[in-house]
Structures are given as structure tokens and as C-alpha cells.
Specification:
By secondary structure, this protein is of the alpha/beta class. It is 47% helix and 15% strand. It is globular, with a radius of gyration of 19 Å.
Length: 365
């Protein structure tokens, strides 16, 4: 729920609405059906308000309600197994997001990034600049999508003169849900495809393109930077130094009934394209950066929360130590300053500004 509250910073939710649903769910913890029903109910209520605003020719108001609906539809399907209901909820999220962005963020456009014999759907968030400009490619995490990163990463980047390509890579968002393309450990394949696409755009300077990832993307982005040398900078928004080790601990707590690291048991195998958790754990053995971090030579930023309960802060220090770049920055957000939780879920705007400033200093100035 903290993630939904934070999206209010970019006009894609409201604390009161999140609180209203939270109160309905307070005595139904662990009830995945109740979660789906209540968030779907709130999403549809926002859609109804959007449609009424459209009928009154109040486009900006409609756009706001559509963005709220998009985020609530997205999180509604979080604990629902793969299937028609999950896909329909996600389709509703995409539809509402694109309707909302048309009114509130007209600089966001949908694009397709060629990938092997398919394509990865993405949003290009354009900065208000003339001529070829810097750009960042942004990959999602384990259970997020481009509909969130286009806002919390894209808005702050474009305000600083940097375009952003918010992309659903293999195992993420629409690419997983509607195209059935699972994750892969060698994410440089997706990273190269993304660079090949964005570097050909006439509004992008191909010498000033960086790559970033948040949460699980904090494994993907450094991995990409280690192999795809055309990227000029890299950001790990949450350092996943050894993703297998993360899930050894996470699985142990889930099996014991813990809630700090809540994730549906179907989710990881689904993302990885394997039948069960044992197979998922085996596949994750390759998701580690200890042997490749030394090959990263571009400027790198690592951000991490001091009290991250999903990925221990020690992993950020290990990744920082191993990275071969001369220009590398480690930012640990403390309890006192805020942003101490996983991916700064308790103060995402704080980190979004820090990341965007760092990128501006490397790619714009």
C-alpha cells in the first residue's frame, strides 16, 4: 500500500482512497480474493468518475481519475494467479494509464522495442528540449510495470532535460503478462535491444544514454552495464548483488508465514518461466553480480534503504566494492532522512529526485 500512496506524488493515487481500501482490508489480511475485489472496486469507481468528467468535457479531471484507476487496477492483480482475471485487470490498468497520460502527461507515448522475434512494450517520456538529448532506459522490478516507472522516474528525469524509456523487459509487466516472455539472467540481451532502439531516435543523443533499474532491476541494470558498453551511465535503484541469496532468505520467511516480504508463491516461478519454486531457485543461481561487477566501467549510482527488509543493505556495499568504475556513488537512505525502506517505498520522491540529479550531473552538464 505504501507504493500506491507514493504514486500520489505524480497524480496517480490519493492517500484517502488508499486508506479507504486499507480499512476494508484491515481484518482480512492474507485474503487474496478480498485484496483483488476491493482494489478492483476502487479502480472501477475511479473509472466511473473519469467517464463522468469526460462527458462534461473536463479532460484534465478525467485524466487524473484514469491515472488513479490505472494504479489500482495494477495492484489489484498482484496476488491473483496468472489467468484471465489477472490479464484483464492488467489490460484495464494499461488502458486507463494511456487515457490518463493523454490528458495529464501528453509527453508520454507508447512505443515498441524490437526484441529477438518479438517486441517489448514501452513508454517514451519526452523531455521538453530541442535537438538530440540525453536519455535513460528504465527496467522494472519483480512485480512492477512501466505504468509506474514512466511517472516516478520519467517525470523527474524529463524535468531535468533527460528523456526516459520506461520499458517492460522479459519477465516484467506487459511483456510477461500479455506476451508470455519470462525473465533471463543475461539481461544484456534485452539491454542491447533497448539501446539499439533508443539510439536510433532522432531526439536522442546516442553518446548520452544510460540504463537504470529498480528493485529486481537493480540486478538487471548493473548486469547490462557490465556487458553493453555503449551505455554512458547506470543506476541500481536497490542493489540486488545476489538475487539467489535474496530469495533463499525470502522463501524461508514466506514458508514460515512471514509478511514482511509478502509475495504470492506463484509469482517468482511465473516471472522466471519455470513450473515451481524449486526450479525457480535453481534458475536464480545465475542471477548474481559478483563475477561481472568488475567489468562495469561507466559511472554508476547505487541507492538503497538502510532498513530494506527484502534486500539487506550489505548487498549495496558489496556491489559498490566490486564495481570497476572510477566514478561510482553509493547512497544509503537512513531512517532519519527517510527513504530507508525497500526502493524508498516510504519516500520515493526523495530518491527520484536524488537519482535524477545524479543523472543530470553525468549526462546533461
Amino acid at each position: 500500500m505504501m507504493a500506491m500512496i507514493e504514486m500520489a506524488n505524480w497524480g496517480a493515487g490519493a492517500m484517502g482512497e488508499v486508506d479507504q481500501v486499507g480499512r476494508r482490508l484491515r481484518d482480512r489480511q492474507g485474503d487474496n480474493e478480498a485484496w483483488f475485489e476491493e482494489w478492483s472496486r476502487m479502480a472501477k469507481a475511479q473509472e466511473g468518475k473519469a467517464e463522468a468528467a469526460e462527458a462534461a468535457n473536463h479532460g484534465l479531471t478525467a485524466g487524473t481519475f484514469y491515472l488513479h484507476a490505472a494504479i489500482y487496477h495494477l495492484y489489484a492483480e498482484r496476488f491473483i494467479p496468472p489467468g484471465d482475471r489477472k490479464n484483464e485487470s492488467y489490460r484495464a490498468s494499461v488502458r486507463c494509464f494511456e487515457q490518463g497520460a493523454k490528458q495529464r502527461y501528453p509527453n508520454i507515448s507508447r512505443v515498441e522495442v524490437p526484441y529477438l522475434d518479438s517486441a517489448m512494450p514501452a513508454y517514451f517520456v519526452r523531455a521538453d528540449v530541442s535537438g538530440p538529448a540525453p536519455a535513460m532506459v528504465c527496467f522494472d522490478g519483480l512485480d512492477s510495470s512501466k505504468e509506474t516507472s514512466a511517472l516516478f522516474a520519467g517525470v523527474e528525469m524529463t524535468r531535468r532535460g533527460v528523456h526516459l524509456l520506461a520499458i517492460d523487459g522479459p519477465g516484467q509487466g506487459e511483456t510477461l503478462r500479455l506476451r508470455n516472455i519470462p525473465s533471463r539472467y543475461d539481461y544484456e540481451v534485452a539491454g542491447t535491444a533497448a539501446y539499439d532502439y533508443i539510439s536510433q531516435r532522432p531526439d536522442v543523443d546516442p553518446q548520452r544514454v544510460g540504463v537504470m533499474g529498480f528493485s529486481m532491476g537493480g540486478y538487471y541494470a548493473p548486469r547490462i552495464a557490465a556487458f553493453e558498453k555503449r551505455y554512458a551511465a547506470s543506476v541500481a535503484w536497490g542493489a540486488h548483488y545476489d538475487y539467489h541469496a535474496v530469495w533463499v532468505a525470502r522463501r524461508r520467511e514466506m514458508d514460515a508465514g512471514g509478511t514482511r516480504v509478502s509475495s504470492a508463491k506463484f509469482h517468482l516461478p511465473w516471472v522466471l518461466g519455470v513450473p515451481d519454486m524449486d526450479a525457480a531457485m535453481k534458475k536464480l543461481e545465475s542471477y548474481r553480480l559478483d563475477t561481472v561487477a568488475k567489468n562495469i566501467s561507466c559511472p554508476v549510482l547505487i541507492t538503497h534503504g538502510e532498513k530494506d527488509t527484502i534486500v539487506p543493505v550489505e548487498m549495496a556495499h558489496k556491489l559498490y566494492a566490486d564495481i570497476g568504475s572510477q566514478d561510482k556513488t553509493l547512497k544509503i537512505f537512513s531512517v532519519d532522512e527517510g527513504g530507508c525502506e525497500h526502493m524508498q517505498g516510504d519516500n520515493r520522491l526523495l530518491c527520484a529526485n536524488f537519482v535524477a540529479d545524479w543523472v543530470m550531473d553525468r549526462l546533461v552538464r
